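User: Protein folding is very new to me. Would you mind checking the protein record under this note? It all follows right here:
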Amino acid sequence: MTSRLLEGRVAVVTGACGRLGPVWCEALIDAGADVVGLDLPEAAVPHQFADLQQRAGGRLVLLRADVLDRSALARVREHCEGRGSSATVLVNNAGIDQPPGPATTYRLEDIPLEVFRGVVEVNLIGAFQAIQVFGPGMVQAGRGSIINIGSLYASVSPDAHFYDHLPSDPPFLKPPAYGASKAALVNLTRYFATHWGPHGVRVNALSPGGVEGGQDPEFRRKFIARVPLGRMAAAQDLRGPLIFLASDASAYVTGIELRVDGGFTSW
């Protein structure tokens, strides 16, 4: 039986066309929420999102907005209000990552500053700006849940040995800005939790571990060897934690980082 813990609520999901965007949107739809997904004008719509839109009907819309464009975010807020309800759930999912595989690589000392800055701007500043735009409406309403999507790499450094089998010169490295931006996002989560808690707005981080997504077998072998549960995460593993944080099931939970990593960060 599908839980309807979010019946009648409006949720905004940034980066809705990204790898995990459809996962968050589907979980929220199935929990009863109406969902407004945001993504860049040029972002392709994955079939998972298109299929979900068809199933959800008017309860899932996609609007084009850059999280670094405050006026675009404000228009999304106005769209929600024009439909009769301000957003009471915000999932800050938009981000820049670089999965293992063919990519432009750099030696650590050669990483261009603009590459580092670009990751931080989207992953951290974009989330901050989305909170600024959608959070005050929650404060005014006296309720709301903001969920910042972190990463296990907010807590630990990527193991370069996971990637040393990849044919690349220079060797593939998980971008240092990625984990740094996610660690900062977790701290920002705590900051807003303390300021807006008295107004009924909860702010938490959800940090997935490695999510199954067609990675090469050698990477999977190395990664899974470090996971106490002995596997990578499936999309289904992320749905429950998101709905827990979005709904009143976590009414007394704020300022935490919920790691959904199979125990990876336990050792």
Observations:
- The radius of gyration is 18 Å.
- The helical segments are 21-30, 47-56, 70-82, 113-141, 176-196, 217-224, 235-246.
- Residues 10-251 form a domain with the Rossmann fold fold (CATH 3.40.50.720).
- The chain has one domain: 10-251.
